[in-house]
Amino acid sequence: MRFINRDTIFHRLDPRTKIAMSLMCACLIVVLRMPEGLLGLFSLLLVTFTVVRPPFSYVRTLVSLMAIAVIFTVISQGFFYYFEPKTPILTFIPENSGWIGKLTGGLAIYREGLIYGAIQSLRLCCAMVLSMIIVITTYPSDLILGLERIGVPAKIGFVVTVSIRFLPALIDEARRILVAQKLRGLNVKGVRGGFVALRYLLPPLIIDSLRQARRIALAASVRAYTGERTHIRTLEFSRIDWIAAGLSTGVMVFLIFFYGGL
Amino acid sequence: MIKIDDFSFVYPGSGKPALEHISLQAEKGELILIRGASGSGKSTLLYCINGLVPHIFNGNYSGRIQVNGFSPSDISIRELSKTVGTVFQNADSQIFMMRVEDDVAFGCENLLMPREEIIRRRDGSMKEMGLWEMRTKETYKLSGGQKQRLAISSIYAMGPEIFLFDEPTTDLDQDGRKDFFGILTQLKRGGKLVILAEHQYEEYMPLVDRVITLHEGRLVSPERAPEYPPGFLQGYGKENEVVISCKSVDVAYEKGETALKNINLEIRKGEVVALSGRNGSGKTTLLKSLAGILRPDAGVVTIFDMANPSLEMISGRVGFLFQNPDEQLFAGCVEEEIAFGPKHLGKRVDVERYLHLSGLSNERGRHPQTLSRGQRQLLAVTSVLAMEPDILLLDEPTTGLDDVHWMHLFSLLSQYSMEGKTVVYATHNRKAAGTASRVVHLDDGRIISDEIYQ
Fold first, then answer.
1. Staple B148 to which of A29, A231, B91, B281, CB 3.0 to 4.6 Å?
2. Strands B242-251 and B298-303
3. How many CB atoms are located within 10 Å of the residue A200 CB?
4. pLDDT digit string (tens) for B393-416?
5. Mean pLDDT across chain B
6. Residues contacting residue B190 through CB under 8 Å, at least 6 positions apart
7. Which residues in chain B are contacts of A192 at CB distance < 8 A?
8. Which helix (H) or strand (E) holds B62?
């Protein structure tokens, strides 16, 4: 999952505009109570997602992630909905069926739970589409520069850049260690095997990351890194930024006013 | 430009000095080669010139160092980096940005140069270092040689007069090394002072003005390193049965792997085979297919009469060593590490014997990750050997080894092959490939030659 170099309206927006839009969106995800509002937000995000023209593999990943989120949230909320009133639509163990009913408090699927689960999963899906749009359309260095310009300390920005750059290498390394374990006869099947694998995965992974971190630190030192830095890349607010920011604010006010459930 | 006068340095917590009574002078336009075994103080000497000692590695030092008239201890590393540029072995850990041109600019940005100045230097450096065509390329897509070229270009943009190279070509194949030769020529022509610490320096000798040899932190007069005749590892496999065979094997491109096309290969018991070729030629992909780690998309890899076996089916009978030893050391101490494989396979083996073979009997209680790089490599090899596999596959086993550890590794392999076991290793190093009894050369995913030495 990484930045894709394309020329769309969203790619052209200043990262600061995108940060502001994400914050508004995050705020809406939390505040909106009525499902119609969330649905509206979700469809807006989906429209944006098509505008940035993601490759098919990204769409597939997004759909499967959303499916998992929806299934788990709806089922778990359906069974374990806590609030009253709740209407059972399918009862597995009635509450008054002797000791087992008393012990479990009854096991049933509740209508209100399903609805609540659907709303919650809609929130999760919104967050997923949003983060994917940001990742696809923003060149990491620009995002960091944007964060810096709105007051996030430069050192934190640098740490984030370096993490983005080295995370894939770390995942590859973990994969190789797991294969090496198998080749040395370690049984990594099942839950117990998983724990054993983890026990022998972490020490080399952590020690090697520390070693790598030290190499990176030395290399940064000789490249004169001290935290203070001028940026060759520049950010500029253009007209489309003002329009995008204005539109998003309008949408936010509209959604909160009509569907906020305040 | 550099003047070192009776300089000694001891790392904190170490009883032994890393450098002792070093005196040295170097002038503009010179190319100086530093040689010496791992731990002889090559890197430390470079760190003393670029200011990492004492600013990052503090310890006790005596004597004087002057770089361009300044003492490195008196000015900051940043200030010093305007005069002294350093390039390390691992190109990957020297790249910070996602795009080539941004990475070249990074050092200048840190020096707080004005924007126009940075752009001028960045573009100039990319043109001179041959990166102009790939300036907008993502850095993770570069080959090993290109990454090292980028690391050098980024330093070059900062405009130093002195270049320090700490084993810059260890991870590079023949093409990358040839590339580096060109860069050295260019730096020399530009009147820069270059100090190069490197194990394998033979091909750079035409450019070298002076050779300095370090031994346990002292300057010594040079002596010749041991050489191996071709075919040093005598395979005893000419008439033996076939243990691995590939029939019209195709492996499709996977992330980070080169695709293989129509590979036909038979390896007999007792053979010592080197898979040679440049980086990206497909030798690692082939090696992984021979170990059952990658399954072929077409064709059949037969290992001990099993067609396309899974890892579990051959675990214990085929030993595999990845390039980085650190990803294969899991246990709490050296002794446990050697016993790890046999224990999980339920095999009883003489751990003592393998401890002895690894040359680490005196370090048996130490944590594997605290050993030196060469020792870690030998331990990783021995830990695989201790499982007493019939076939041993190794990926770039000589990376980062000095002459002593190199010799130790090949004597281990030689002994093992004499027991009638099969050894296959992938290497981009000509010297390492020449040591085998059979060399299979790959290019672009195909076998282009297969030579057996008598």
1. B91
2. antiparallel
3. 21
4. 999 998 878 888 888 898 889 888
5. 89
6. none
7. none
8. strand B60-67
